[in-house]
Amino acid sequence: MTHFGIPEIDERLAGLMGMVDRMSELQSRMQEMTATATDADGRIEVAVDASGRVSALRIDPRAMRSASEDLAEAIKTAVSQAQDSLKGQMDGLMAEMAGSTGVDIDAVMASPGSLQELAVELGRVARAGSTVEEVQAALTEMTRRTTGLNT
């Protein structure tokens, strides 16, 4: 697909749009992640959602015979294990995506504005009849924001 009829710009635009699509996929996959952990006795089971918040808690009735301090500690431990598992999943996904896209994930996550805003801006530039210089400047800024690289 050509937007400007200038191969170098069209290639950069296509590459950047591909990165935006892959980063959007990353965000979607991360939002769907969950993790579950069980205490050593198998009497406490905790599930956390993508934000790390407890989404489910199962306490076997036999656990209720434990001292309250022991029960509380078992719950805290299971929650921490579930959150650690979730973090591991997210780190793995981010490493996978960074490896396949060359994107500096940390730079993207720390940058202001969403990927959707980047996609809208790319579309605006592509349709606006912008000059070559304006397009190159916009592509450079968007590349910097998505990859952390100054090109």
UniProtKB/TrEMBL annotation:
It comes from Actinopolymorpha pittospori. It comes from the Bacteria. Gene3D superfamilies: Nucleoid-associated protein YbaB-like domain. GO terms for molecular function: DNA binding. Keywords: DNA-binding. The keyword Transferase does not apply. Pfam families: YbaB_DNA_bd (PF02575). The keyword DNA-binding applies. This is DNA-binding protein YbaB.
